[in-house]
Design a protein that fits this description.
365 residues, alpha+beta, Methyltransferase, Cobalt-precorrin-4 Transmethylase, Domain 2, D-amino Acid Aminotransferase, Chain A, domain 1, Glucose Oxidase, domain 1, 3 domains, seven-stranded mixed β-sheet, six-stranded antiparallel β-sheet, 14 helices, 28% strand, pyruvate, water dikinase activity, PEP_synth
């Protein structure tokens, strides 16, 4: 996947939520903008590995300050994600990924920001990803997905042959949707970083970050990536998303049924409706979508939001249980079955179906 092209068309989760008028949009935006300072605290207390950035004010870059010149000389050839984080309310976060640090500077100038209202995070990036995960730790357990490749395959939901493997730990037993010992070992190693047996360290973390622990595991929403050349990084830690998913749990595979359409639970609930297939983004221009229909597509992208709002449920060929689109369906309270592989081939326009988001099943009526 070409990440530089992906980030030109995809939007952040905060922007997804803003477009549906989510009441916690501003709080989630602040949480996202401050995630690395939180991970720094965890790094200092429990050694959590994370993608530690080089930090500057936008003014320092605009004025080509000495410290920034030094960074360009010593690390200019390294790949990065450049994040422009607003320091005042109401301004958007801007980012690109996959360019060398020195080659990201023209993009910085193209944004035409007020350099006195932004800070800049030069985040390390690797083009040699091995595995990525996205998961929730809550009172019920640990639930998430792992994929071979970059984390964008999970957050955006677009993937090819490298399909996600779902995992679940209900505080008694680990379960995986596929038998792969390398994946199992990787996920268990990640979880171990969040297991804090030291009572004093848990109290210190709780005091500084106002968080909860379950069975001594730190609660929240997390994303990780392990690279061939840099090792494991936690790249996101979000307390608000963790709270939104505080009651979340998932089955490892969708319920099998005679209609041949099953997947994963993207959003719970059960409803009925007529199928409307809008297979690709190119079909959106001619799609005649009615209120109350079931949206069936390859994968939802931001352009699908008007249809997602009108739909009674969403079914996708691709996608994952914690992709941005699945989270949006959950917040819209629309049942969603994701990762079916074949919904756009098996279902037809006008089919009357029951969408069981809780069990990841689609049944013909």
């Amino acid at each position: 996947m070409d990440l530089t092209k992906l980030y030109q068309t995809q939007i952040s989760l905060t922007e997804w939520l803003e477009k549906i008028g989510h009441p916690q949009t501003d709080a989630i935006r602040v949480e996202d903008n401050s995630k690395r300072p939180r991970m720094k605290i965890l790094n200092e207390i429990i050694g959590l590995p994370y993608d530690k950035p080089y930090n500057f004010s936008a003014r320092e870059i605009a004025d080509n300050a000495l410290e920034f010149q030094k960074l360009l000389i010593e690390h200019g050839e390294e790949l990065c994600a450049l994040r422009l984080v607003p320091t005042v309310e109401g301004l958007p976060k801007l980012r690109n990924r996959g360019f060398k640090i020195k080659d990201s500077i023209p993009w910085f100038w193209e944004q035409k920001i007020d350099p006195d209202k932004y800070k800049v995070e030069v985040v390390p990036h690797s083009d040699k990803p091995l595995f990525s995960t996205i998961f929730i730790v809550n009172e019920r357990g640990i639930y998430g997905e792992v994929v071979v490749g970059t984390h964008a395959l999970l957050t955006q939901g677009f993937y090819g042959e490298s399909r996600p493997i779902t995992f679940a730990y209900d505080w008694s037993k680990w379960k995986f949707s596929e038998d792969n010992q390398k994946i199992v070992d990787h996920v268990l190693a990640i979880a171990k970083h969040l297991l804090v047996d030291d009572d004093n360290k848990r109290k210190e973390i709780s005091s500084k970050l106002d968080v909860k622990f379950y069975h001594n595991y730190l609660a929240g929403y997390f994303e990780t990536i392990i690279n061939e050349d840099t090792g494991l990084w936690f790249i996101d830690y979000n307390r608000i998303l963790g709270n939104i998913y505080k009651d979340y749990s998932c089955l490892l595979s969708g319920a099998q049924n005679i209609d041949g359409v099953s997947g994963q639970s993207g959003s719970g609930g059960k409803t009925q409706g007529r199928v409307r297939i809008v297979k690709t983004k190119e079909d959106l221009a001619t799609a005649k979508f009615n209120d109350g229909e079931v949206l069936v597509c390859g994968m939802t992208a931001p352009e699908y939001l008007p249809l997602m709002i009108k739909a009674v449920a969403v079914i996708t060929d691709m996608g994952g249980i914690l992709s941005h689109a699945a989270i949006v369906c959950r917040e819209l309270k629309k049942p969603a079955v994701v990762g079916t592989k074949n919904a756009t081939q098996v279902l037809k326009d006008g089919d009357l179906v029951e969408v069981d988001g809780e069990n990841g099943a689609v049944r013909m009526i």
